[in-house]
Amino acid sequence: MKKYFLFAVGALFIGTSLHAQLPADLKTATQDVTSMAGPGKLLTQFTDAIKPTAFLGNWAGEKGGWLAKAGKISSAVSMAQSISSLVGFLKPGAFKSGFNVQSLLQTAATATTMSSATGLLKSLEGGLKPETFSDGWAKQKSGWLGALNLVK
Fold first, then answer.
1. What is the pLDDT of residues 94-114, one digit of tens each?
2. What is the pTM of this model?
């Protein structure tokens, strides 16, 4: 009987300790993660994962300004516009055969929600050849996609 009592007290103590470490409000925790990895940050992370050889020559002169503007994205429209301009800097050979770049650009022109804008970015990521990305992208991709799914 004494063993059961000690076990119950130990389980109660562990359960209380674990509960105390959980966020009081999971919505707040989700907002914290989203603010750390907002749409601009995720777009610039994605862009940084693309090899420099996948870009056209004019990217070198535009990169700094583009990244600065993309890092400050706060709306779906500005994100869609940044994705469209990024597509314009990529070499045609960076895309998988059969990927419809024009369709992506048309969809970007009508994006009004953050969900549609993040969908554009996912579509672009899926439309690029694997060799377009740096070696570390395969390891980062799942975490990046998870963070992108949290953007609302």
1. 999 999 999 999 999 999 999
2. 0.75
